[in-house]
Amino acid sequence: MAKIQLSSSQKKAAHFDQGAHLVVAGAGTGKTRVITQRIEYLLKKQSITSNNIVALTFTEKASAEMVERLGDIMPLGYEEPWVYTFHSFADRILKKECMEIGLDPSYKILSGPDQWLLLRKYIFKLDLKYFRPLGNPTKFISAILTFISRLQDEAITPEQFLEFAKKFKSSSTDLDAAVEEKARWEEMAYIYDKYTQLKIQNSKLDFGDLILWTLQLFKTRPNVLAKYKSQFSHMLVDEFQDTNFAQYQLIKMLFSPNDLKDSTTRSLLAVGDDSQSIYKFRGAAISNILDFKDDYPGCEMTTLTENYRSYQEVLDPSYRLVQNNNPDTLESKLGISKELTSMVGSSNVKPKIIRLDTLEDEVEFVVSTILDLIAREPNYTYKDFAIMARANGHLDPFVLALRSYGLPYQLVGNRGLYDRDEVRDLIALLKILIDSHDAISLYRVLNITTLNIDASVISSILSTARYNKTPLWDVFLKNPDPSLDLIKSLIEKYQAQITKDLPSDLLYNFVTDISYIKQFTENESIEGNLSIGNLNLFLEKVKRFQLTFKQETKELPTVVDLIDYLDLIMDAGDNPAQSEIEDIDTINLLTVHASKGLEFPVVFMVNLVSNRFPTRNRRDKFEVPDELLSETLPSGDEHLQEERRLFYVGMTRAEKYLYMLSAKNYGGRRDTTPSGYLEETGIKETEVNMLDLKNALSQLSLFGVESGFKSLTGRPLSNGYEPKFLSYSQMQAFNMCPLNYKYKYILNLPAPPSHALSFGISIHDTLRDFHNALIIGADTSLESLLNMYAQNWQPLGYEDADHRDLRYKEGATLLTNYHADVIKNKPKHLGLEQSFNLTLGGVRFYGKIDRIDVFDDGKESGIEIIDYKTGSPKNQKEVDKDDQITIYAIGAKEALGYDPKKFSMYYLESGEVISTTRTPEQLEEKKKQVSAVVEEMKKGNFEATPGMHCSWCDYKDICPYAEK
């Protein structure tokens, strides 16, 4: 790969030695490049070890992207620095240190719905007057949790808030109102305190807790803080403008202004742009970036204004818009200029503001313009277009239009998993088992495509039920049509299993029996692949529910428990993101928030009218009192400033074409008012002849969209296949059967629950927790080990309860023997579950080593790599040739810098340990073999290789080539 050339300002930001450095990185100026080059500079030029560098991001996606980019510029093998989100970073520290402050290191992290369920579970055990109306006891739960989250963002503990409530004095002149206001604050403080206690009692933390408890750890245990300050000599913070007060406190505790002022070996790089601060609703404090230079006296600053994304015609009006946020900007405060200069140049294409009559006109304009540009711009494909709105709901009419014209599209970063047809089908299948008189679910089940029930049969059932005023279920059972026989028998079969089978097992078997997934695999399409992804997401959610239910109740859930859970979390407003497919040629529909960090040659910003963009200022039901806020509040209208920054983010996603659209009417009685931000751009409105556009679209409807246009198949972006990363398991699957690899790792088809996999994960997770306890000096008694086993036990995929119970007992016996062995031999650990990152065959290769020990058996000493196995033992000859060991040897040597003397497979069920070695020649030969496999993958030919392995293949029921 060619060496990346930095501009002079980027180089200044990436290549400094010590102290604090603020990088004000405008849109499209290469901030991620600066961060990755900074890490490379520290590792290569400064010879800093990876363990001394921490880089913090805001999303898992950004963290993964940073790791990927580092992989492109670093040597073939290297140990990754601490690249984490703030929450993952805090979680890693707490997992290791939280016993210092009395927390359980095996805590689980609560999702939003789980928080709601926990508070709901105990709502009647709390002494409440104001926030539990008996007519609707759960009315305030979501608002209370949002308020508590905001307190956590401000680093306010329950104790501090209780103190505030006790001392609170109302400004109201009405004595009764003042007394009630104080009582409400006291009740809210009581809830915060009790909710925190409930989480601790249940070994649970929420995301806000991760930061708050880490701050508490560092404040109350100076020795722990000193340890991490000693470890981390260099910190990098991405999207600094989106940090909240608590996160900034965490940064300042590890890299205090005084430490940096007096040090020649420590550095802090903060990268951000106040013009792109758009997460106030998540607690982001823009004052952090505005005050950074005051907090770190002597801080160096670099302003990146060279834009590598957009033409100047896009940048100029964007800048005019955001200038209206002065004086609450870095430009005003520091006297700098953030006006962006395009490195792409100028274009004869100007951004357009277009005002149309109706929503239908707006939709038709977008579709027509997409088709026109695809015809006129030879290099443009569907992926180059983005339709962006302020809210998800504003995109629905555009989805319907794209679908009706057969144009490939996908929703990016969009919620609504439970609204997808395929997920609704699965929920209906479950609901009809527990409530046969659920007519809506029954109707949905009868319409499932793969059941092949004729529409006339369904219509007959409906009309008979309506005419005779008879339950739909009764009419369905009496209808003799043969096409109903399969679903009747399956409902009867699985109704008998609802208290015996785990929901995930039952659901997978049910959908397999009706060949449900085949409809998405027979004729591969974008929509089919997205549906498969959504099914996977839903099944994973079901599995997580099962594990959580078991941990909390010590019982296994039934389908009834799952449906109760789904009903509750949907009532709580939970509706997770849908599946997405990367590297596919589709039109992108997304909210402006979801567009952050993305770029597109053509951008349509739609529905740009007052009360839509900017939105109305919908304040939280409970707001943190100003006297508790630590951030500096702006002088202007905070809401309108944030909405303006969001508008700026939307505009600066465009590379060349930018269309800003509004309609006079969206179905209401009154005409709308265009967004005030449109006028602030300084762009004049463009007139459009809708009659010509409508005529063009009507011709397309007559002759088909493909006439004169490119194929609309939503094809992948390359003819071959380029794996983003590989693991040993992936390579093993490809070598066994390329079609199996495609099903599992490209299409991500749901696989049947596997008891062997569940057992292996249960044992591995237990040993991880046990050896972590050994390292930190926690309880490592046999009783503690078996308690860990009970917590980590995964009950999925077993034949029945007897099979599950017998396997559990075998695991307990296995661990009892293992415990005796560990206590006797007292292993010395260098690492547990150590990840490595390599480049093999031009592809990133990832692996995780169970244990890295130091051994001394009297004959020799050195480093030993240990891999746990729960299957049948191999013999010595097989271990000597084992591919996984060879790849781990490459990873340990080239990525982690170890030179292991031996590699051992620990067969846990027999207690047998078989060790082997690897020569440099074996490692080089394996690299060549991996490269050859990668080259085969890149051809994109995933042909089936039927054989004996078909009998245990996860996909034998849907694979047309499987040997029966």
Automatic annotation (TrEMBL):
GO molecular function: 3'-5' DNA helicase activity; ATP binding; DNA binding; exonuclease activity
PROSITE patterns: UVRD_HELICASE_ATP_BIND, UVRD_HELICASE_CTER
EC category: isomerase
GO cellular component, one term: cytosol
Catalytic reaction list: ATP + H2O = ADP + phosphate + H(+); Couples ATP hydrolysis with the unwinding of duplex DNA by translocating in the 3'-5' direction
Domain UvrD-like helicase ATP-binding: 4-311
SUPFAM superfamilies linked to this entry: P-loop containing nucleoside triphosphate hydrolases
Pfam families for this protein: PDDEXK_1 (PF12705), UvrD-helicase (PF00580), UvrD_C (PF13361)
A GO biological-process term: recombinational repair
Keyword Nuclease: yes
EC number: 5.6.2.4
UniProt entry keywords in alphabetical sequence: ATP-binding, DNA damage, DNA repair, DNA-binding, Exonuclease, Helicase, Hydrolase, Isomerase, Nuclease, Nucleotide-binding
Residues that bind ATP: 25-32
Family recorded in the similarity comment: Belongs to the helicase family. UvrD subfamily.
Protein name: DNA 3'-5' helicase
Species for this entry: candidate division WWE3 bacterium
